[in-house]
Design a protein that fits this description.
- With 87 residues, the protein is mainly α.
- It is built from four helices and no strands.
- The longest helix has 17 residues, at 70-86.
- The radius of gyration is 12 Å and the shape is globular.
């Protein structure tokens, strides 16, 4: 899966789930944690990533550097998918 596809899927999910379907309110590198997404939202997001992209998100990976922005999420999912295909 290409990064553009990953980003499109992540943006759509976040916009639908946390921004009431308003993708224009979602920037690429703006912080999501504590503003748009609270602790319960993190669980929803992680569950979506695991189910939609067929990856496993380990407890120690649930950190801002992986989940705090669309950009970080895309990079994180891309890394997980690359590891999965190279295994």
């Amino acid at each position: 899966m290409e990064k553009m596809e990953i980003e499109r899927d992540i943006r759509k999910f976040i916009a639908d789930e946390f921004f009431f379907g308003r993708p224009d309110k979602l920037s690429g590198d703006g912080s999501l944690l504590g503003t748009a997404i609270d602790s319960t939202g993190i669980l929803v997001l992680v569950t979506h990533l695991q189910e939609h992209f067929d990856i496993t998100v380990e407890d120690e990976e649930v950190v801002p550097s992986n989940l705090d922005s669309v950009k970080n999420l895309v990079e994180f999912v891309d890394r997980k998918l690359l590891r999965k295909t190279s295994s």
